[in-house]
TrEMBL record:
This is L1 transposable element RRM domain-containing protein. It comes from Monodelphis domestica (Gray short-tailed opossum). GO terms for molecular function: single-stranded RNA binding. Residues 156-251 form the L1 transposable element RRM domain. Residues 254-312 form the L1 transposable element dsRBD-like domain. The keyword rRNA processing does not apply. PANTHER family: L1 TRANSPOSABLE ELEMENT-RELATED (PTHR11505). It comes from the Eukaryota. Residues 1-51 are annotated as: Disordered. Keywords: Coiled coil. Residues 51-152 form a coiled coil. InterPro entries: L1_C, L1_dsRBD, L1_RRM_dom, Transposase_22. It holds the Pfam family Transposase_22.
Amino acid sequence: MAHMAQNQASRKKGKKVTIENFYGGSTQGKEENEEEIQKNSEHASQNGNYQQALEDLKLELIQKMETWKEKWEKEISCLTDKNAQLEKELEASNRRADKAEKQNQSLMTRIKHLEESEMIKQQESIKQTQIINELEENIKYLTEKVTDLENRGRQENLRIIGLPEKPEVNNKLDIILQEIIKENCPHVLEQGGKIEIERIHRTPSILNPQKTTPRNVIAKFKSFQVKEKILQEAKKKSFRYKGAPIRITHDLAANTLRDRKAWNTIFRKARELGLQPRINYPAKLTIYFQGKVWAFNKIEDFQAFAKKRPELCGKFDIQAQKARET
């Protein structure tokens, strides 16, 4: 018993059981030692199987790891290629962006230059407009001045309208004018029964065969006072030559005649309304209305005046009158 207890104590302490220890004890100890040996043998066998299984598992894991490694290497290679492609695309995009930025800057520069050029052109246009306006004002002033000088140069002239266009008349216009004065205002004649005439002629100088009306006659007198006397008599009554009616008026410049002619429609209507219209020098309309004499240099001024007077409003619509006449 003491020997057996000693063997058990040895196992608990982890000591190796030897043959000597085994056979040194009792029979029961021998049996227990044999069982222990058998268990140790089975345990060793099982340990061998575990080692083999671990080796197999390790081999399988190594194979799987190699497979995964190949896949990862392929994935990494693919990602590397994609990354390189993306870098190329990014680089190309950056180049395009740089190019677009340069183009944008170039366009902005051009736009700025164009705006500056446009501003300069506008300023030049404003200056040119001012210069043109000044020139137009100067031209207007000079035209009026020339017209006035031309009218003043014609102040000794009279224009005879309606004198028949015949050879026997055209060849002796000075004599016929004397006859007209004797017939219509003999008290104007100077001593000797004649008027001194500097020159007399038809105008225009060339006869237009397409016109049926006779050309006007322009007579220049040596005395302005005599010419005015004849003109005043012509305003008082209608002149005649051998019974045929003729008109005697101022001889004025073409521009003044045009401006006077523009008053014709208003003049006729004012005469119908009893406004006693007159055309004064150079082309000024005067009327007698509500006990006062009113003067107008422009048609627009007269129309504005008429619109404010109920008695005249709507009666001087030039366009409507021209349409009715047409």
